[in-house]
Amino acid sequence: MELWSELGALTCPVLLVVGGLSPSVSAADLERYRRSLPDLRVEVFDDSGHEVFRPDYERFMLLVEGFLAELDVL
């Protein structure tokens, strides 16, 4: 089920972490995310595949913690 048409309903900041070695998110998909989500932050881990927390779990966690800290959620 595709939910592209529903993305515009999100009003909160969104962090999208993409693995550079993964074919799951194409350049066209990234552009579509950018058009649909006004408060989008995209991070690409060039050395990761679909499991973006590999090979560097700490890098992933620091990114998520930093994003949440910016939102004052932590």
What would your notes on this structure say?
The chain has 74 residues and is α+β, with helices and mostly antiparallel strands. It has one domain (11-70). The chain is 32% helix and 16% strand. The protein has 2 helices and 2 strands; from the N terminus they run E-H-E-H. A two-stranded parallel sheet has the order 1-2. Helix 1 links the parallel strand 1 (14-19) and strand 2. The chain is flat. The model has no long low-confidence stretch (mean pLDDT 93).
* Order of strands in the sheet with most strands: 1-2
Structural class category: alpha+beta
Strand residue percentage: 15-25%
> What is the terminal separation in angstroms?
32 Å
Please tell me the total number of domains: 1
Compressed to H and E, one letter per element, the order equals EHEH
Helix content: 25-40%
Catalogue the unreliable spans: none
Quick one: biggest sheet? 2 strands, parallel
Alpha carbon gyration radius: 13 Å
Number of strands: 2
Number of helices: 2
Q: What is the overall pLDDT average?
A: 93
Q: What's this, in brief?
A:
The chain is α+β, with helices and mostly antiparallel strands.
Question: Which key phrases capture this entry?
Answer:
74 residues; alpha+beta; two-stranded parallel sheet; 2 helices; 2 strands; flat
What does the secondary structure layout of this molecule look like, with pairings?
Layout lengths: L13 E6 L7 H10 L3 E6 L11 H14 L4
Parallel strand pairs: 1-2
